[in-house]
Amino acid sequence: MSIKAENIEYVYSEGTPFRTIALDNINLKINEGEFLGIIGHTGSGKSTLIQLFNGLEKPTQGKIFINDELVGENKKNLKDIRKTVGLVFQYPEYQLFEETVYKDVAFGPLNLELSSQEIDERVKEALELVGFRYQDIKDKSPFDLSGGQKRRVAIAGVLAMRPKYLILDEPTAGLDPMGRNEILDQIKKLHKNSSMTVILVSHSMEDIARLVQRIIVLYKGKIHMHGTTKEIYSQAEELKRIGLGVPQVVEIMGELQKNGFEINKNILTVEEAKQEILKALRRN
Predict the structure, then answer these.
(1) How far apart are CA 247 and CA 194, in angstroms?
(2) Contacts for 239-243 with beta carbons within 8 Å, 24 or more apart?
(3) pLDDT (tens digit, 9 = 90+) per residue, 53-75?
(4) pTM reported for the whole predicted model
(5) Above 80 in pLDDT, residue 282?
């Protein structure tokens, strides 16, 4: 099972003076169970690419395959693809509208014409996957929750459809530090405790470093770099050259190395950095 993009090109405003190539010869494969990060500047093609994955957009050229099935062959195909690939846009809490959390999360399954028992099971499962106690939250109004809690409810609404792939577009945007940590912790647990493939699109180098196994770097509509998280962040100068950054921890470790410390600069988290710095101090 995988998502595959073959020779993808996407052009906006074709046939006009405003013609813009958003994606240019994209070839990639996302494997089952993987946690992939996609990074790049605004306008690099990130949002266009993820909308191709569940058929919200069609490529100008090339093909997208979900589990070897060509996306967009017919309406039934698209309906099945959108059950398989769950897409959570930025600020998904703006789409909450029901009077209770239960009703909001149940909205998708209701449209699948499932039995009431199956809907109950899916709502309970989805809310627990994002860290809620079902009985404590189900009857609350989503509008009485904190920003981080609202976002978790919105993600639960997508999870209730039981997708095999979950795509999150800037899931921490606009949240305070507590809400940000809340969301990231739940996303990490979700991937660890399920067989779901997770694709995270983010401007936050720290969020990407904390969560993903592999990174795709988009630049001017092309795949500019790809590799494991440590491989990508070890190329700090190239990331800076194209206008991206690296996590602050990576910056600090690099500076320590430049100043004579025998230290591994391929460190991604604060905890790893703490241990590495202690080792260096003992050596000195």
Answers:
(1) 27
(2) 242/41, 242/217, 243/41
(3) 999 999 999 999 999 999 987 77
(4) 0.89
(5) no
Long-range (24+ apart) CB contacts under 8 A made by 222-230 are 222/24, 222/25, 222/26, 223/26, 223/27, 223/28, 224/40, 226/28, 229/37, 229/268, 230/266, 230/268
Angstrom distance (rounded) from CA 44 to CA 200: 15
Show the domains of the chain with their CATH numbers: 2-233 (3.40.50.300), 247-284 (no CATH)
H/E run at residue 102: helix 101-111
* Rounded Cα gap, residues 266 and 105, in angstroms: 41
Question: What amino acid occupies position 185?
Answer: D
Cα diameter, the chain? 67
Enclosing H/E stretch for 52: helix 46-53
Distance CA 13, CA 20 (A): 7
Residue of 2, 1, 3, 7 lying closest to 223 (CA atoms): 7
